[in-house]
Design brief:
By secondary structure, the chain is an alpha/beta fold. The protein has 18 helices and 14 strands. The strands form 3 sheets. It has a 6-stranded parallel sheet with strand order 3-2-1-4-5-6, with helices on both faces. Strands 11-10-9-12-13-14 form a 6-stranded parallel sheet, with helices on both faces. The chain is globular and about 75 Å long. Bound molecules: nicotinamide-adenine-dinucleotide and uridine-5'-diphosphate-xylopyranose. Pfam families: UDPG_MGDP_dh, UDPG_MGDP_dh_C, UDPG_MGDP_dh_N.
Protein backbone atom coordinates (compact mmCIF):
# COMPACT_ATOMS: atom_id res chain seq x y z
CA UNK A 1 0.00 0.00 0.00
CA UNK A 2 1.32 3.40 -0.95
CA UNK A 3 0.94 5.85 1.93
CA UNK A 4 3.65 8.40 1.21
CA UNK A 5 4.52 10.17 -2.00
CA UNK A 6 7.14 12.82 -2.55
CA UNK A 7 7.51 15.10 -5.56
CA UNK A 8 10.77 16.89 -6.28
CA UNK A 9 9.97 20.18 -8.04
CA UNK A 10 7.15 22.51 -6.97
CA UNK A 11 6.60 24.10 -10.38
CA UNK A 12 3.79 24.33 -12.93
CA UNK A 13 3.60 20.54 -13.09
CA UNK A 14 4.62 19.35 -9.62
CA UNK A 15 2.35 21.76 -7.72
CA UNK A 16 -1.00 21.21 -9.50
CA UNK A 17 -0.41 17.48 -10.12
CA UNK A 18 0.34 16.72 -6.50
CA UNK A 19 -2.54 18.90 -5.29
CA UNK A 20 -4.93 16.77 -7.35
CA UNK A 21 -3.34 13.48 -6.23
CA UNK A 22 -3.67 14.63 -2.61
CA UNK A 23 -7.29 15.62 -3.11
CA UNK A 24 -8.20 12.34 -4.78
CA UNK A 25 -6.15 10.08 -2.48
CA UNK A 26 -6.93 11.17 1.11
CA UNK A 27 -5.00 8.19 2.50
CA UNK A 28 -1.76 9.19 0.84
CA UNK A 29 0.49 11.86 2.35
CA UNK A 30 1.91 13.96 -0.48
CA UNK A 31 4.97 16.17 0.09
CA UNK A 32 6.19 18.52 -2.63
CA UNK A 33 9.78 19.67 -2.17
CA UNK A 34 11.86 22.29 -3.91
CA UNK A 35 15.25 23.94 -3.42
CA UNK A 36 13.68 27.32 -4.14
CA UNK A 37 12.82 28.64 -0.66
CA UNK A 38 10.79 31.58 -1.97
CA UNK A 39 8.64 29.30 -4.12
CA UNK A 40 7.90 26.96 -1.21
CA UNK A 41 7.07 29.93 1.01
CA UNK A 42 4.60 31.12 -1.63
CA UNK A 43 3.00 27.66 -1.81
CA UNK A 44 2.57 27.86 1.96
CA UNK A 45 1.12 31.39 1.93
CA UNK A 46 -1.94 31.65 4.18
CA UNK A 47 -3.83 33.23 1.32
CA UNK A 48 -4.01 30.59 -1.41
CA UNK A 49 -4.51 33.32 -4.00
CA UNK A 50 -0.80 34.08 -3.48
CA UNK A 51 0.48 30.63 -4.48
CA UNK A 52 3.18 30.98 -7.12
CA UNK A 53 1.17 29.62 -10.02
CA UNK A 54 -1.99 31.14 -11.39
CA UNK A 55 -4.21 28.28 -12.47
CA UNK A 56 -8.03 28.35 -12.34
CA UNK A 57 -9.36 26.02 -9.62
CA UNK A 58 -5.97 25.45 -7.98
CA UNK A 59 -6.35 27.75 -4.94
CA UNK A 60 -9.55 25.94 -3.95
CA UNK A 61 -7.89 22.52 -4.02
CA UNK A 62 -4.83 23.79 -2.13
CA UNK A 63 -7.12 25.33 0.50
CA UNK A 64 -8.88 21.99 0.87
CA UNK A 65 -5.89 19.67 1.24
CA UNK A 66 -2.84 21.70 2.29
CA UNK A 67 -1.89 20.82 5.85
CA UNK A 68 -4.17 17.75 5.66
CA UNK A 69 -2.32 15.42 3.30
CA UNK A 70 -0.53 17.92 1.05
CA UNK A 71 2.67 19.56 2.25
CA UNK A 72 5.17 21.93 0.63
CA UNK A 73 8.69 21.84 2.05
CA UNK A 74 12.36 22.50 1.39
CA UNK A 75 13.39 19.40 3.35
CA UNK A 76 14.22 17.33 0.29
CA UNK A 77 16.13 14.55 2.06
CA UNK A 78 13.44 13.92 4.65
CA UNK A 79 10.72 13.68 2.01
CA UNK A 80 12.81 11.29 -0.12
CA UNK A 81 13.60 9.13 2.89
CA UNK A 82 9.95 8.74 3.89
CA UNK A 83 8.33 8.26 0.49
CA UNK A 84 7.59 4.98 -1.29
CA UNK A 85 7.02 6.77 -4.60
CA UNK A 86 9.21 9.71 -5.63
CA UNK A 87 8.11 11.83 -8.58
CA UNK A 88 10.83 13.83 -10.31
CA UNK A 89 9.18 16.96 -11.70
CA UNK A 90 12.09 19.34 -12.07
CA UNK A 91 12.72 21.56 -15.06
CA UNK A 92 14.47 20.19 -18.15
CA UNK A 93 15.22 23.33 -20.17
CA UNK A 94 17.10 23.55 -23.44
CA UNK A 95 20.86 23.48 -22.84
CA UNK A 96 22.45 26.93 -23.00
CA UNK A 97 26.06 25.72 -23.04
CA UNK A 98 28.38 22.98 -24.29
CA UNK A 99 27.48 20.05 -26.52
CA UNK A 100 23.90 20.27 -27.79
CA UNK A 101 23.66 23.96 -26.82
CA UNK A 102 20.34 25.39 -28.03
CA UNK A 103 18.92 21.93 -28.83
CA UNK A 104 19.41 19.18 -26.27
CA UNK A 105 17.56 19.01 -22.95
CA UNK A 106 19.66 20.06 -19.98
CA UNK A 107 19.45 17.09 -17.65
CA UNK A 108 21.62 18.46 -14.84
CA UNK A 109 18.64 18.92 -12.49
CA UNK A 110 17.42 15.39 -13.22
CA UNK A 111 20.85 13.96 -12.50
CA UNK A 112 21.06 15.93 -9.25
CA UNK A 113 17.74 14.44 -8.16
CA UNK A 114 18.88 10.92 -8.99
CA UNK A 115 22.09 11.43 -7.02
CA UNK A 116 20.18 12.86 -4.09
CA UNK A 117 17.77 9.92 -4.06
CA UNK A 118 20.68 7.46 -4.31
CA UNK A 119 22.40 9.14 -1.37
CA UNK A 120 19.38 9.36 0.91
CA UNK A 121 17.27 6.26 0.21
CA UNK A 122 17.47 3.51 2.82
CA UNK A 123 14.44 1.54 1.64
CA UNK A 124 13.18 0.40 -1.80
CA UNK A 125 11.69 3.19 -3.92
CA UNK A 126 9.66 3.67 -7.05
CA UNK A 127 11.14 6.65 -8.90
CA UNK A 128 8.78 8.26 -11.40
CA UNK A 129 9.90 10.46 -14.28
CA UNK A 130 7.21 13.16 -14.38
CA UNK A 131 9.46 15.68 -16.15
CA UNK A 132 9.57 15.47 -19.94
CA UNK A 133 12.76 13.64 -20.82
CA UNK A 134 14.71 12.44 -23.84
CA UNK A 135 13.99 8.82 -24.69
CA UNK A 136 16.30 6.45 -22.73
CA UNK A 137 16.86 8.83 -19.79
CA UNK A 138 15.54 6.14 -17.45
CA UNK A 139 18.66 4.15 -18.28
CA UNK A 140 20.91 6.95 -16.96
CA UNK A 141 18.78 7.44 -13.85
CA UNK A 142 18.87 3.71 -13.12
CA UNK A 143 22.62 3.56 -13.49
CA UNK A 144 23.06 6.41 -10.96
CA UNK A 145 20.57 4.90 -8.52
CA UNK A 146 22.11 1.44 -8.72
CA UNK A 147 25.65 2.75 -8.24
CA UNK A 148 25.50 2.92 -4.45
CA UNK A 149 25.61 -0.88 -4.00
CA UNK A 150 23.75 -0.59 -0.68
CA UNK A 151 21.08 -3.13 -1.62
CA UNK A 152 18.24 -0.63 -1.97
CA UNK A 153 16.08 -1.60 -4.97
CA UNK A 154 14.81 1.07 -7.36
CA UNK A 155 12.17 0.81 -10.05
CA UNK A 156 12.06 3.61 -12.61
CA UNK A 157 8.74 4.49 -14.19
CA UNK A 158 7.99 7.03 -16.89
CA UNK A 159 4.72 8.88 -16.26
CA UNK A 160 4.75 11.97 -18.47
CA UNK A 161 2.34 14.80 -17.76
CA UNK A 162 -0.01 16.00 -20.49
CA UNK A 163 -1.68 18.90 -18.67
CA UNK A 164 -1.82 22.24 -20.45
CA UNK A 165 -1.43 25.43 -18.45
CA UNK A 166 -4.59 27.42 -17.86
CA UNK A 167 -6.62 24.20 -17.87
CA UNK A 168 -4.30 22.15 -15.65
CA UNK A 169 -6.88 21.25 -13.01
CA UNK A 170 -9.50 20.22 -15.54
CA UNK A 171 -6.85 18.21 -17.44
CA UNK A 172 -5.67 16.51 -14.25
CA UNK A 173 -9.18 15.68 -13.05
CA UNK A 174 -10.32 14.38 -16.45
CA UNK A 175 -7.22 13.28 -18.33
CA UNK A 176 -7.50 11.92 -21.89
CA UNK A 177 -5.13 9.23 -20.68
CA UNK A 178 -2.58 8.45 -18.00
CA UNK A 179 0.57 6.95 -19.48
CA UNK A 180 2.82 4.75 -17.36
CA UNK A 181 5.92 3.10 -18.78
CA UNK A 182 7.88 0.56 -16.77
CA UNK A 183 10.23 -2.36 -16.89
CA UNK A 184 8.84 -5.62 -18.27
CA UNK A 185 10.22 -7.61 -15.30
CA UNK A 186 7.95 -8.83 -12.48
CA UNK A 187 9.27 -6.05 -10.20
CA UNK A 188 8.71 -3.50 -12.97
CA UNK A 189 5.12 -4.65 -13.40
CA UNK A 190 4.55 -4.44 -9.64
CA UNK A 191 5.79 -0.86 -9.64
CA UNK A 192 3.51 0.00 -12.57
CA UNK A 193 0.57 -1.48 -10.66
CA UNK A 194 1.37 0.62 -7.58
CA UNK A 195 1.14 3.80 -9.66
CA UNK A 196 -1.94 2.56 -11.53
CA UNK A 197 -3.58 2.08 -8.11
CA UNK A 198 -2.88 5.72 -7.22
CA UNK A 199 -4.50 7.05 -10.41
CA UNK A 200 -7.36 4.56 -10.17
CA UNK A 201 -8.71 6.65 -7.31
CA UNK A 202 -10.23 8.92 -9.94
CA UNK A 203 -9.27 7.78 -13.44
CA UNK A 204 -11.16 4.97 -15.19
CA UNK A 205 -9.08 1.86 -16.02
CA UNK A 206 -9.55 2.20 -19.80
CA UNK A 207 -7.85 5.60 -19.63
CA UNK A 208 -4.74 4.22 -17.96
CA UNK A 209 -2.27 3.02 -20.55
CA UNK A 210 0.82 1.03 -19.61
CA UNK A 211 3.79 0.61 -21.95
CA UNK A 212 7.50 -0.05 -21.86
CA UNK A 213 9.62 2.83 -20.51
CA UNK A 214 11.01 3.96 -23.87
CA UNK A 215 7.59 4.18 -25.54
CA UNK A 216 6.33 6.28 -22.66
CA UNK A 217 9.29 8.65 -22.73
CA UNK A 218 9.08 9.04 -26.51
CA UNK A 219 5.28 9.43 -26.54
CA UNK A 220 5.52 12.67 -24.58
CA UNK A 221 7.93 14.27 -27.07
CA UNK A 222 5.80 12.91 -29.91
CA UNK A 223 2.56 14.32 -28.50
CA UNK A 224 4.05 17.80 -28.14
CA UNK A 225 5.60 17.64 -31.60
CA UNK A 226 2.24 16.67 -33.17
CA UNK A 227 0.35 19.39 -31.28
CA UNK A 228 2.84 22.11 -32.21
CA UNK A 229 2.91 20.84 -35.79
CA UNK A 230 -0.82 21.50 -36.13
CA UNK A 231 -0.31 25.11 -35.04
CA UNK A 232 2.59 25.66 -37.43
CA UNK A 233 0.54 24.05 -40.20
CA UNK A 234 -2.43 26.36 -39.71
CA UNK A 235 -0.11 29.35 -39.24
CA UNK A 236 1.56 28.51 -42.57
CA UNK A 237 -1.88 28.56 -44.14
CA UNK A 238 -2.66 31.90 -42.45
CA UNK A 239 0.03 33.59 -44.51
CA UNK A 240 -1.38 32.11 -47.69
CA UNK A 241 -4.87 33.23 -46.64
CA UNK A 242 -3.66 36.80 -46.26
CA UNK A 243 -2.39 36.74 -49.86
CA UNK A 244 -5.43 35.10 -51.41
CA UNK A 245 -8.52 36.43 -49.66
CA UNK A 246 -9.24 33.12 -47.94
CA UNK A 247 -10.09 33.36 -44.22
CA UNK A 248 -8.02 31.07 -42.00
CA UNK A 249 -10.85 30.73 -39.47
CA UNK A 250 -13.11 29.42 -42.23
CA UNK A 251 -10.40 27.13 -43.54
CA UNK A 252 -9.75 25.77 -40.00
CA UNK A 253 -13.45 25.13 -39.51
CA UNK A 254 -13.78 23.44 -42.87
CA UNK A 255 -10.86 21.07 -42.37
CA UNK A 256 -11.62 20.50 -38.68
CA UNK A 257 -15.02 19.04 -39.58
CA UNK A 258 -13.19 16.14 -41.18
CA UNK A 259 -13.25 13.66 -38.32
CA UNK A 260 -9.78 12.44 -39.34
CA UNK A 261 -8.39 15.93 -38.71
CA UNK A 262 -10.62 17.16 -35.86
CA UNK A 263 -11.35 20.75 -34.78
CA UNK A 264 -8.91 21.29 -31.91
CA UNK A 265 -5.54 23.04 -32.03
CA UNK A 266 -6.20 24.75 -35.33
CA UNK A 267 -6.25 28.34 -34.09
CA UNK A 268 -3.97 30.53 -36.14
CA UNK A 269 -1.99 32.83 -33.88
CA UNK A 270 1.02 35.08 -33.49
CA UNK A 271 2.93 31.84 -32.84
CA UNK A 272 2.99 29.27 -30.10
CA UNK A 273 4.84 29.88 -26.85
CA UNK A 274 5.08 28.08 -23.55
CA UNK A 275 7.80 26.16 -21.84
CA UNK A 276 7.23 22.90 -23.68
CA UNK A 277 6.70 22.94 -27.44
CA UNK A 278 9.90 24.56 -28.62
CA UNK A 279 12.07 22.87 -26.01
CA UNK A 280 10.65 19.42 -26.67
CA UNK A 281 10.80 19.66 -30.45
CA UNK A 282 14.40 20.92 -30.33
CA UNK A 283 15.15 17.98 -28.10
CA UNK A 284 13.46 15.59 -30.54
CA UNK A 285 15.47 17.08 -33.41
CA UNK A 286 18.66 16.65 -31.40
CA UNK A 287 17.86 13.04 -30.58
CA UNK A 288 17.04 12.25 -34.22
CA UNK A 289 20.33 13.85 -35.33
CA UNK A 290 22.25 11.94 -32.72
CA UNK A 291 21.01 8.71 -34.32
CA UNK A 292 21.96 10.06 -37.78
CA UNK A 293 18.29 10.48 -38.77
CA UNK A 294 18.73 13.76 -40.59
CA UNK A 295 15.46 13.67 -42.56
CA UNK A 296 13.50 13.04 -39.36
CA UNK A 297 15.33 15.92 -37.67
CA UNK A 298 14.75 18.32 -40.57
CA UNK A 299 11.07 17.41 -40.77
CA UNK A 300 10.38 18.37 -37.15
CA UNK A 301 12.71 21.36 -37.14
CA UNK A 302 10.48 22.96 -39.75
CA UNK A 303 7.74 23.30 -37.08
CA UNK A 304 10.04 25.62 -35.12
CA UNK A 305 11.22 27.50 -38.20
CA UNK A 306 7.59 28.18 -39.16
CA UNK A 307 6.85 29.41 -35.63
CA UNK A 308 9.80 31.81 -35.67
CA UNK A 309 8.59 33.10 -39.02
CA UNK A 310 5.07 33.66 -37.68
CA UNK A 311 6.34 35.75 -34.74
CA UNK A 312 8.66 37.80 -37.00
CA UNK A 313 5.91 38.25 -39.54
CA UNK A 314 3.63 39.74 -36.87
CA UNK A 315 6.15 42.40 -35.79
CA UNK A 316 7.20 43.21 -39.38
CA UNK A 317 3.56 43.62 -40.28
CA UNK A 318 3.10 46.18 -37.52
CA UNK A 319 6.09 48.19 -38.72
CA UNK A 320 5.06 47.96 -42.38
CA UNK A 321 1.46 48.95 -41.69
CA UNK A 322 2.49 51.90 -39.51
CA UNK A 323 4.10 53.51 -42.58
CA UNK A 324 7.41 51.67 -42.16
CA UNK A 325 8.35 53.30 -38.90
CA UNK A 326 7.41 52.77 -35.27
CA UNK A 327 10.20 54.92 -33.85
CA UNK A 328 8.86 56.79 -30.80
CA UNK A 329 5.37 55.43 -31.48
CA UNK A 330 3.33 53.92 -28.69
CA UNK A 331 2.30 50.31 -29.26
CA UNK A 332 -0.11 48.97 -26.64
CA UNK A 333 0.30 45.27 -25.87
CA UNK A 334 -2.75 43.53 -24.49
CA UNK A 335 -1.39 40.35 -22.97
CA UNK A 336 2.10 39.11 -22.21
CA UNK A 337 1.45 35.51 -21.00
CA UNK A 338 1.94 32.76 -23.60
CA UNK A 339 -1.77 31.91 -23.42
CA UNK A 340 -4.78 32.92 -21.34
CA UNK A 341 -5.43 31.82 -17.75
CA UNK A 342 -1.78 31.47 -16.79
CA UNK A 343 0.87 33.78 -15.34
CA UNK A 344 3.54 31.82 -17.22
CA UNK A 345 5.43 33.79 -19.87
CA UNK A 346 8.05 31.29 -20.92
CA UNK A 347 8.72 31.58 -24.69
CA UNK A 348 5.69 33.84 -25.04
CA UNK A 349 5.39 35.38 -28.50
CA UNK A 350 4.93 38.76 -26.78
CA UNK A 351 8.59 38.74 -25.70
CA UNK A 352 9.88 38.35 -29.25
CA UNK A 353 7.43 40.80 -30.79
CA UNK A 354 8.33 43.40 -28.15
CA UNK A 355 12.01 42.79 -28.76
CA UNK A 356 11.62 43.37 -32.51
CA UNK A 357 9.63 46.55 -31.96
CA UNK A 358 12.08 47.92 -29.40
CA UNK A 359 14.79 47.37 -32.02
CA UNK A 360 12.70 49.72 -34.16
CA UNK A 361 12.67 52.19 -31.24
CA UNK A 362 8.99 51.81 -30.42
CA UNK A 363 7.63 52.43 -26.91
CA UNK A 364 5.71 49.43 -25.63
CA UNK A 365 2.79 49.86 -23.22
CA UNK A 366 1.88 46.55 -21.63
CA UNK A 367 -1.15 45.29 -19.79
CA UNK A 368 -1.54 41.68 -18.71
CA UNK A 369 -3.98 40.75 -15.93
CA UNK A 370 -1.54 38.27 -14.33
CA UNK A 371 2.00 39.24 -15.32
CA UNK A 372 4.13 41.71 -13.34
CA UNK A 373 6.47 44.41 -14.69
CA UNK A 374 9.37 42.61 -13.05
CA UNK A 375 8.63 39.47 -15.05
CA UNK A 376 8.18 41.37 -18.32
CA UNK A 377 11.56 43.08 -17.90
CA UNK A 378 13.32 39.89 -16.88
CA UNK A 379 11.89 38.13 -19.98
CA UNK A 380 13.33 40.84 -22.21
CA UNK A 381 16.61 41.08 -20.37
CA UNK A 382 17.05 37.31 -20.74
CA UNK A 383 17.32 37.80 -24.52
CA UNK A 384 20.41 40.01 -23.95
CA UNK A 385 19.55 42.12 -27.00
CA UNK A 386 20.34 45.41 -25.24
CA UNK A 387 21.19 46.87 -21.84
CA UNK A 388 18.55 46.34 -19.10
CA UNK A 389 18.19 50.13 -18.72
CA UNK A 390 17.13 50.37 -22.36
CA UNK A 391 14.44 47.78 -21.79
CA UNK A 392 13.31 49.69 -18.68
CA UNK A 393 12.99 52.84 -20.76
CA UNK A 394 11.17 51.14 -23.62
CA UNK A 395 8.49 49.37 -21.57
CA UNK A 396 5.71 51.04 -19.63
CA UNK A 397 3.39 48.73 -17.71
CA UNK A 398 -0.14 49.37 -16.56
CA UNK A 399 -2.77 47.67 -14.46
CA UNK A 400 -5.56 49.27 -16.44
CA UNK A 401 -6.16 48.40 -20.11
CA UNK A 402 -7.77 51.75 -20.97
CA UNK A 403 -4.74 53.71 -19.75
CA UNK A 404 -2.51 51.29 -21.66
CA UNK A 405 -4.18 52.18 -24.94
CA UNK A 406 -4.42 55.94 -24.35
CA UNK A 407 -2.64 57.88 -27.11
CA UNK A 408 -1.36 54.62 -28.62
CA UNK A 409 -0.75 54.44 -32.36
CA UNK A 410 -1.62 50.76 -32.41
CA UNK A 411 -2.82 47.92 -30.21
CA UNK A 412 -1.38 44.43 -30.45
CA UNK A 413 -3.28 41.52 -28.92
CA UNK A 414 -0.70 38.98 -27.79
CA UNK A 415 -2.74 36.78 -25.43
CA UNK A 416 -6.35 35.65 -25.80
CA UNK A 417 -7.53 36.70 -22.29
CA UNK A 418 -11.36 36.61 -22.26
CA UNK A 419 -11.64 40.10 -20.76
CA UNK A 420 -10.17 41.67 -23.93
CA UNK A 421 -13.33 40.76 -25.83
CA UNK A 422 -15.50 42.70 -23.39
CA UNK A 423 -13.76 46.06 -23.42
CA UNK A 424 -15.47 49.29 -24.45
CA UNK A 425 -13.72 49.51 -27.81
CA UNK A 426 -15.46 52.73 -28.69
CA UNK A 427 -13.90 54.38 -25.63
CA UNK A 428 -10.49 52.93 -26.48
CA UNK A 429 -10.77 54.17 -30.08
CA UNK A 430 -11.52 57.69 -28.93
CA UNK A 431 -8.42 57.83 -26.73
CA UNK A 432 -5.99 56.63 -29.42
CA UNK A 433 -3.93 58.37 -32.10
CA UNK A 434 -5.57 58.24 -35.54
CA UNK A 435 -5.58 56.26 -37.69
CA UNK A 436 -6.02 53.69 -34.92
CA UNK A 437 -4.70 50.23 -35.69
CA UNK A 438 -5.41 46.87 -34.07
CA UNK A 439 -3.19 43.87 -34.72
CA UNK A 440 -5.12 40.93 -33.35
CA UNK A 441 -2.55 38.18 -32.89
CA UNK A 442 -5.23 35.85 -31.56
CA UNK A 443 -8.20 36.58 -33.83
CA UNK A 444 -10.41 37.14 -30.78
CA UNK A 445 -11.99 40.48 -31.63
CA UNK A 446 -14.89 41.18 -33.96
CA UNK A 447 -13.38 42.63 -37.14
CA UNK A 448 -16.64 44.07 -38.50
CA UNK A 449 -17.51 45.78 -35.21
CA UNK A 450 -14.07 47.31 -34.84
CA UNK A 451 -14.03 48.53 -38.42
CA UNK A 452 -17.44 50.05 -37.85
CA UNK A 453 -15.98 52.02 -34.92
CA UNK A 454 -13.18 53.23 -37.16
CA UNK A 455 -10.25 50.96 -36.35
CA UNK A 456 -7.99 49.57 -39.01
CA UNK A 457 -8.08 45.89 -38.08
CA UNK A 458 -5.45 43.29 -38.97
CA UNK A 459 -5.96 39.73 -37.81
CA UNK A 460 -3.97 36.61 -38.56
CA UNK A 461 -4.89 34.98 -41.85
CA UNK A 462 -7.96 37.09 -42.38
P1 LIG B 1 9.20 24.67 -13.30
O1 LIG B 1 10.44 25.36 -13.66
O2 LIG B 1 7.94 25.44 -13.10
O3 LIG B 1 9.44 23.84 -11.94
C1 LIG B 1 10.54 23.05 -11.70
C2 LIG B 1 10.94 23.21 -10.23
O4 LIG B 1 11.96 22.25 -9.93
C3 LIG B 1 11.53 24.58 -9.88
O5 LIG B 1 10.75 25.19 -8.87
C4 LIG B 1 12.96 24.27 -9.41
O6 LIG B 1 13.38 25.10 -8.34
C5 LIG B 1 12.83 22.83 -8.95
N1 LIG B 1 14.10 22.09 -8.92
C6 LIG B 1 15.04 22.01 -9.88
N2 LIG B 1 16.04 21.20 -9.49
C7 LIG B 1 15.72 20.75 -8.25
C8 LIG B 1 16.33 19.86 -7.32
N3 LIG B 1 17.49 19.26 -7.61
N4 LIG B 1 15.73 19.64 -6.14
C9 LIG B 1 14.55 20.24 -5.84
N5 LIG B 1 13.91 21.08 -6.69
C10 LIG B 1 14.48 21.33 -7.87
O7 LIG B 1 8.98 23.54 -14.41
P2 LIG B 1 7.59 22.88 -14.87
O8 LIG B 1 6.93 23.76 -15.87
O9 LIG B 1 6.85 22.40 -13.68
O10 LIG B 1 8.13 21.63 -15.68
C11 LIG B 1 8.71 20.52 -15.03
C12 LIG B 1 8.85 19.40 -16.02
O11 LIG B 1 7.55 19.01 -16.51
C13 LIG B 1 9.67 19.74 -17.27
O12 LIG B 1 10.40 18.61 -17.66
C14 LIG B 1 8.60 20.05 -18.31
O13 LIG B 1 9.05 19.80 -19.61
C15 LIG B 1 7.51 19.09 -17.94
N6 LIG B 1 6.16 19.49 -18.33
C16 LIG B 1 5.75 20.78 -18.18
C17 LIG B 1 4.44 21.14 -18.51
C18 LIG B 1 3.97 22.56 -18.36
O14 LIG B 1 2.88 22.86 -18.84
N7 LIG B 1 4.70 23.44 -17.73
C19 LIG B 1 3.56 20.18 -18.96
C20 LIG B 1 3.99 18.85 -19.07
C21 LIG B 1 5.30 18.54 -18.75
C1 LIG C 1 1.36 22.01 -24.03
C2 LIG C 1 0.55 20.75 -24.35
O1 LIG C 1 -0.74 21.13 -24.85
C3 LIG C 1 0.40 19.90 -23.11
O2 LIG C 1 -0.28 18.69 -23.43
C4 LIG C 1 1.79 19.58 -22.56
O3 LIG C 1 1.67 18.82 -21.39
C5 LIG C 1 2.55 20.87 -22.28
O4 LIG C 1 2.61 21.66 -23.47
P1 LIG C 1 0.84 24.34 -22.86
O5 LIG C 1 2.11 24.77 -23.49
O6 LIG C 1 0.63 24.58 -21.41
O7 LIG C 1 0.60 22.78 -23.10
O8 LIG C 1 -0.40 25.06 -23.61
P2 LIG C 1 -1.10 24.81 -25.03
O9 LIG C 1 -2.54 24.95 -24.85
O10 LIG C 1 -0.64 23.59 -25.69
O11 LIG C 1 -0.61 26.07 -25.87
C6 LIG C 1 0.74 26.22 -26.28
C7 LIG C 1 0.86 27.42 -27.21
O12 LIG C 1 0.21 27.18 -28.44
C8 LIG C 1 0.22 28.68 -26.63
O13 LIG C 1 1.04 29.79 -26.93
C9 LIG C 1 -1.09 28.77 -27.36
O14 LIG C 1 -1.59 30.07 -27.44
C10 LIG C 1 -0.69 28.23 -28.73
N1 LIG C 1 -1.81 27.68 -29.51
C11 LIG C 1 -2.51 26.62 -29.04
C12 LIG C 1 -2.13 28.23 -30.75
O15 LIG C 1 -1.50 29.18 -31.20
N2 LIG C 1 -3.16 27.68 -31.47
C13 LIG C 1 -3.88 26.62 -31.03
O16 LIG C 1 -4.79 26.17 -31.74
C14 LIG C 1 -3.54 26.07 -29.78
Amino acid sequence: MITKICCIGAGYVGGPTMAVIAQKCPNIQVTVVDLNVERIQAWNDDNTNNIPIYEPGLPQIVTEVRGENLFFSTEVDKAIDEAQIIFISVNTPTKTYGKGKGMAADLKYIELCARQIAKVAKSDKIVVEKSTLPVRTAEAIKSILDSTGNGVQFQILSNPEFLAEGTAIEDLLNPDRILIGGDTSVEGQKAIQALVDVYSNWVRPEKILTTNVWSSELSKLTANAFLAQRISSINAMSELCEKTGADVNEVAKAIGMDSRIGPKFLKASVGFGGSCFQKDILNLVYIAKSYGLNEVADYWEQVIIMNEHQKNRFSSNIVKTLYNTVADKKIAFLGWAFKKDTNDTRESAAIFVANDLINEQAKIMVYDPKVSRKKILSDLNYLETRMPEENENSIVTFDNPYLTCEKAHAIAILTEWDEFRKYDWQKIYKSMQKPAFIFDGRNILNKAELEEIGFIYRGIGV
